[in-house]
Amino acid sequence: MRSQRAGRRLHCRIGLRRNYRCSLLRRDVPAISKHRYLPLDVFAGQAGSGNPLGVIFNAATLSSKQMQQIATWLNLSETIFFLPVSVPDADDHIRIFTPRAALPFAGHPSVGAAWAAVPHGLIAHTPSGQLRQQCTAGVLPVEVFDRHGALLVRLRAPRARAIDTDDSCAEALRVACAGLRVSAQPAALWNNGPNWWLLELAEIRAVRQAAPDLVAIARQTQASAACGLAWPFTHPCTMVTQTWSCAPSAPATAFRKTR
């Protein structure tokens, strides 16, 4: 598989919905904990488009179990929680949760976190725009800058690395995509925080019109602790990718198309 081994840069605009204060009931203690909640649309210039993201501020009093319960209840693809920094060179600290599990890193949550941290006073907007974001995958460099009146974010993702797997799982994914024109490259499991299977297709039309066996893909990706399957078509000037991942509130055998 072709890989950006040095990491990838993500750019975005943010669509702001509304700002809320939520009273979050802790089931294990007889009290109400109040936390500020911000719903964002990442990779979008207006509300209701792009990738949804839940943002919970002042989450230091929440346990990992409570964060997971909140993320499950919100039922967004990801929810982030702002925590106090715990390493000397970090400017802010987040944890990322899907409705099912914590992630060490994910692109649009990290971008959305950087966008939310500056205007909401969690960190100062320095002239250089250079920030250091702490997450489970490490401390990542982030750039926040103004362009034509819009606040934009750029970050470098963790370095991708190939994961050794059982050949039978890769072959099962290939069978699940039977009928698609795949490249000569076998399916491969890669990690840049979360695990993703990659299966390169031989033509761009196959990427756009793919209709695979979703039940089989769900079974194989979950068996290998992967978030899902992505199939890119790459060309010297073009890269088109479709990704499939488990739906947040659906059974393990149901999948949804994410982009």
From TrEMBL:
Q: Which Gene3D superfamilies match?
A: Diaminopimelate Epimerase, Chain A, domain 1 (3.10.310.10)
| Highest taxon of source | Bacteria
Q: Name one GO molecular function term.
A: isomerase activity
Cited InterPro entries: Phenazine_PhzF-like
Its Gene Ontology cellular component terms are: cytoplasm
Family to which the UniProt record says this protein belongs:
Belongs to the PhzF family.
Matches recorded under PANTHER family: ANTISENSE-ENHANCING SEQUENCE 1, PHENAZINE BIOSYNTHESIS PROTEIN
User: Which protein, by its recorded name, is this?
Assistant: Uncharacterized protein
